[in-house]
Amino acid sequence: MGLLSKGDRVTVGVIAARGEGERTREYLRRFVDRLGLSGVRSGALAGAAVVDGDLDGYRRSVERNLVPSMRAGYRLLEVFSRRPDVFHALLATPPGWRMFVRFCQGRASFEETLTRAPVRAGLALLDRLPPARQVRRRVAVG
Q1: DSSP sequence for 90-113
Q2: pLDDT in tens, 46-94
């Protein structure tokens, strides 16, 4: 399982051995469902709204079911993008690692993760730090 940052988006993916396609797809479906993102992946919310003729209900459903996780995900992406070095160091602490494991096991969503005191403390620390310096690499020509 992996969460990959791609610019302003986060992609969820899995890698598995050949011959395990359906089992892998089922694992991914269950993981995405635990995150509360199945509507985004499958378009189920939009499809239900069209069938029911209730586009306002679709908007409310997105606001209720998806937006909290999306906001939390953007918050985590923002602090990771600014200071990946410190973000990874915080994940390597016992509380950081426990929270990461809870998330990977589907026992905590993005928004639940942000309610935890150790996570809030780590994010507050990251907010006070300047962005990481860009290291310029010199390329030898010749």
Answers
A1: HHTSHHHHHHHHHHHTTSS-HHHH
A2: 666 667 777 777 778 778 877 888 888 888 888 888 888 998 998 899 9
- CB distance 83 to 76 below 8 Å: no
The span from the CA of 20 to the CA of 18, in Å, is: 5
For 47-63, b/e burial (b = at least 16 CB within 10 A) is eebeeeeeeeebeebbe
Extract the tokens encoding 76: 């985590």
- Cα distance between residue 72 and residue 39, in whole Å: 17
Amino acid making up residue 126:
L
pLDDT of 128 reads 92
Q: Is 124 exposed, middle or buried (0-12, 13-18, 19+ CB in 10 A)?
A: exposed
pLDDT tier for residue 124 given thresholds of 50, 70 and 90 = very high
Q: What are φ and ψ of residue 53, in 5° steps?
A: 65, 30
